[in-house]
Amino acid sequence: MYILGIHDGHNSAACLMKDGEIVYAIQEERFRRIKNFWGPPIASIHACLAFAGIDLSQLQEIVFSSYQHPSREYTSRDDYLSYTREMLRARSLKTILRHSLSRLKSFFGQPLYDVEKRLHLYRNVGFESFPRDRIKTVQHHLCHFATAAFGSDNGLENDLLVITVDGYGDGEDATVSVFKKTETIQKLFSSPDSQPFAKLYAWVTVYLGFVHLEHEYKLMGMAPYANPAHARKMADKFAALLSFEDGKWSYWRGPITTEVDDHKIYQDIRQICEFERFDDICGGLQIFSEEMIVKFVEYWVQKTGIRNVALSGGFFMNVKANRVLKDSPTIEKIYIFPSCGDETNAIGAAMFSYFIDTKRRPRSIRKFTLGNPVLNTSMEELASLTLNSTSIQITHFDDIETEIAQLLANGEIVARVKGREEFGARALGNRSILANPSDWRTVQIINDMIKARDFWMPFAASIIDDDKDRYLKNYGKNYAAHYMVMTYDSSNTADIFAATHPKDKTVRPQIVTYDFNPDYYRLIKTFKNLTGIGAVLNTSYNLHGYPLVHSVKDAVDVFLRSGLNFLAVGNYLMAKREIQKSH
């Protein structure tokens, strides 16, 4: 039984489920080479079918996430920025309504769901001839619910409290549900998107000159640089906009609580933030967000008595807030779905539909390496991609992991492309740039040669499971940090100095087990044998502003266009000859 799951909004993606298990998933951005591609994931759909060697006729169902949908084939970044600017320039109610109706119709489809218009965008795939009774749509936050509830094993023996929070989706910005051990669902609460919480983070991102739905993480990275007293003052100002009572937040507008639109939110933010320092705004926003989400989650934990919690939705990409939740004494066990933005709603749609159809839980996801593998790469192929350049040396190694570990121990920086491609926002070692985490100089070198990251943004650390307690304070047993969605205070900081936040010395770890990725685990283990350090610095392999590399061609192209000196593709090591001669 095959189910095709589709998300065709921001950062569109598709996945394939077979007999209740997600066997393949990929984002459209990887094929299009357009970061956060917004539109129908046509190439991803073809890739799903090709992976299984099937055609549309062999699908049991096609399941879309969200009733809001695009009405054209591609919304560019410039289009979206234009829409944002026009909304923020709106002044009168008439203008706001005109922008809302015309722009939402243009960008997200008709207010009333029109499946035929949606299917027309997939005419070249053949969806219009697919039986209508086998085309399903799952509400936005139900998709987030499904990823949290079914992605976790936490609820197999006990009731599970499932909470979703994001900016907006099908009229909601948050939900609270109980997934009972009897495998029934009880929805307790829904917050309308007219009473926003997570949107505040988005619109402060815009106020500070960044792109929302893309750059929120930069504000989170800057937050520790704030003056604590000034950040506290800003947090209190943000808190004055949003009251919290009886388990819900309400946006405050003068003497009464009313519904608001984005323009009004932005004007309030301007008034609060004008003439304040950039770092203090970021620090205050982060404090406010952490305090509000803790109030929200703890309220529902105490109200239901369920201390076993699963979370999903774009807000929970905030790794600092996740850490505060993990440490809450009211929570016994916590699960956060990996890369829980809207891209994973393709997975949630397939999971939820399978659950409704079969009355059985889909399988939880053990590995997030769900994309294309590197297979049958040859020296001839790699040479041809370099146009047979004599300045590039290509060598085959039976044990490439040991060779990479030795290079890292020697202070080199190596891009690694091996195994199946990671899904979502995090590189987990298979499409990564790796370095010695104890050498701070590597941060500047990586930024100068390829990443061009803002100076305040930290890298991540891949730590073998054996050493997690050596490098992370209070790791605990209530969360398994395999997917870089949680921060910890670092211990033995000297070993992983370059992979910690330069200001607050926190680390965003990927705990690597042998079962999760044997080759990557063995690489880090070998590096430890050489250096005594059981971790490597890990950052995604991509040029700044572009998606993670997808194909071998992408990998070689980035290698040639950047200052990288070493690229490992499969079991081949590519080296720029002048560097290789020095070893």
Q: What does this 3D model show about the protein?
A:
This protein is α+β, with helices and mostly antiparallel strands. It has three domains: 2-75 and 89-143 and 345-365, Nucleotidyltransferase, domain 5 (2-Layer Sandwich); 153-336, Nucleotidyltransferase, domain 5, CATH 3.30.420.40; 372-580, Alpha-Beta Complex (DHBP synthase), CATH 3.90.870. It is built from 20 helices and 25 strands. The longest helix is centred in the middle third of the chain and has 27 residues, at 278-304. It is globular, with a radius of gyration of 24 Å. 50% of the residues are buried. Residues 102-111 have low confidence and may be disordered.
- Could you name the CATH topology of the largest domain? DHBP synthase
Helix percent band: 25-40%
Residue share in β-strands = 15-25%
* Global geometry: globular
Largest β-sheet summary: 8 strands, mixed
Oligomer: single chain
Total number of distinct structural domains: 3
Strand order of the largest sheet: 15-25-24-16-18-23-19-22
Number of helical stretches of at least 4 residues: 20
Provide the fold topology.
Blueprint: E1 2-7, E2 13-18, E3 21-27, H1 28-32, H2 42-52, E4 59-65, H3 77-89, H4 93-108, H5 115-120, E5 135-138, H6 140-151, E6 160-169, E7 172-179, E8 185-192, H7 198-207, H8 216-222, H9 228-241, E9 242-245, E10 248-253, E11 256-257, H10 262-273, H11 278-304, E12 308-312, H12 319-326, E13 333-336, H13 345-358, E14 369-373, H14 379-385, E15 392-396, H15 400-409, E16 414-417, E17 420-422, E18 431-435, H16 441-451, E19 460-464, H17 468-471, E20 488-489, E21 506-507, E22 509-512, H18 518-531, E23 535-540, H19 552-561, E24 566-569, E25 572-576, H20 577-580
Parallel strand pairs: 1-4, 4-5, 6-12, 12-13, 16-24, 19-22
Antiparallel strand pairs: 1-2, 2-3, 6-7, 7-8, 9-10, 10-11, 14-17, 15-25, 16-18, 18-23, 19-23, 20-21, 24-25
